[in-house]
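forwarding from the other thread:

> can someone predict this with flavin-adenine dinucleotide?

sure thing
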Amino acid sequence: MKWFDYVAPRSVAEAVGLLSTRPQARPLAGGTDLLVQLRSGGKETDLVIDVKHIPELNHIRYDPAGGLTLGAAAPCCRIYEDQAVKQAYPALADVAALIGGRQIQNRASIGGNLCNAAPSADSIPVLIAHGAVCRVAGPGGTREIAAENFCTAPGRTVLQPGDLLVALHLPRPPARFAAHYLRFTPRNEMDIAVAGAGVAVWLENGAFRSARIALSAVAPTPLYVREAGEWLAGKPVNGESVNKAAEMAKEAARPITDMRGTAEFRRHLCAVLTRRALEAAIQRAKEARS
Ligand SMILES: Cc1cc2nc3c(=O)[nH]c(=O)nc-3n(C[C@H](O)[C@H](O)[C@H](O)COP(=O)(O)OP(=O)(O)OC[C@H]3O[C@@H](n4cnc5c(N)ncnc54)[C@H](O)[C@@H]3O)c2cc1C
């Protein structure tokens, strides 16, 4: 690994100032992607900016009226141990517990998962399904970006030089709303998804009031299948509707063949995972109290 400087700023302004003046600088949250990439030569830097010491990036705050504000660097273990998250956002708690193993979860953040922009990133379909909004601070001020618009290519995001992801905001889940994420991996843990599906449903009088569906590992970026969710709106909650939406997700996928699976297998998985994730989310929504 090449030598680099290390700094641990205490404020967003300080971090943005450093990112703006040192073009090669890279933020480090958990480091579970970054350090691997620096070691392998996949990425280079002359300055690592450790953002774990910035209070705003570590908050996990749930306001029953406004929703969840998740600091970009908050580690997965704090997310899945948080009572409010477990109760109001169980799919987020599930996915935080799915990323890597215990050691990884003690460091890895959802913000890092998003900024790393791997097509297989497990948390991104859940963020998209929840309608999460990303709060970014940069030299020109603060702006908000919908989670589905954040990744632009493998390993690339909308972030510009000087930008720092500060937090993610997930709207308050209404009554009879729930999300769910499923992935397929050849091994149970410590491997990336061959395909994944994150869904959210909002039910009303036996029909879908709204739905959102997103896929992982089947396109150059995590894929928001807007048309499948919009098609479900107003449809009865039954197997026929679920199957049709699952087929639409399969049609939207643009997978490749690699050592983990063929494109054909991945397309098949999209339908199976979307159907099962929808069924699980529907069950959860029927049980949801808030
Ligand atoms: C053994 C192992 C198992 C893994 N298992 C999984 C898995 O099951 N599922 C999965 O999806 N991933 C997995 N990963 C990948 C990784 O752990 C996750 O992507 C993790 O969420 C990254 O978070 P981090 O905080 O460690 O990010 P970091 O490594 O700190 O950062 C990742 C990237 O984002 C940038 N970045 C970080 N924070 C910010 C910010 N606030 N603003 C702007 N840019 C920022 C960094 O510069 C870097 O480019 C695994 C990794 C390992 C080593």
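The longest helix spans residues 263-287. thats all i got for now
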